[in-house]
Amino acid sequence: MSIVVNIYYTGKDGNARKFAEEMEAGGTAGEIRMEEGNLRYEYFFPMSDPETVLLIDGWRDQEAIDRHHASPMMEKITELRVKYDLHMRVERYVSDEGGIPETDSRFIKE
Questions:
Q1: Fewer CB atoms inside 10 Å of the end CB: C or N, the chain?
Q2: Pair 67, 74: CB distance under 8 Å
Q3: Which H or E element spans position 97?
Q4: What is the pLDDT of residues 18-73, one digit of tens each?
Q5: Would you say 41 and 33 are in contact if contact means Cβ atoms under 8 Å apart?
């Protein structure tokens, strides 16, 4: 069972994008990607809201998330959230281990 957490960071004056850029340029995002159990850590920019950044954060299981939350990375992330005065909205999804049903997969072009 994998877990995907969508985190929407919202700020003012481009601060959410500056936060994501600093996470990448400073190496923090790369370090998180190297953590045991991390499956995905990517930022996206919604076209309809220039003040929001979406982080798609994927983990192997809850234990991997718990280790991440206990790591020094969280202090770095928290410092940057405060620096850029960001607010967050979070969605959490647990994978369907059965895979994509045939009724859905016929609409997917690979």
A1: C
A2: no
A3: none
A4: 999 999 999 999 999 999 999 999 999 999 999 999 999 999 999 999 999 999 99
A5: yes
Query: DSSP string of 32-74?
Result: HHTSTTEEEEEEE--TT-TTEEEEEEEESSHHHHHHHHHSTHH
Backbone angles phi, psi at 27, to 5 degrees: 90, -5
Of 25, 60, 26, 30, the closest CA to residue 42 belongs to: 30
The three-class DSSP label of residue 20 is helix
The whole-angstrom separation of Cα 87 and Cα 17 is 13
Q: What's the predicted TM-score (pTM) here?
A: 0.89
The distance between the two most distant Cα atoms of the chain, rounded to a whole number of Å, is 46
CA distance 82 to 94: 29
Within 13 Å and on the Cβ side, how many CA atoms surround 28?
19
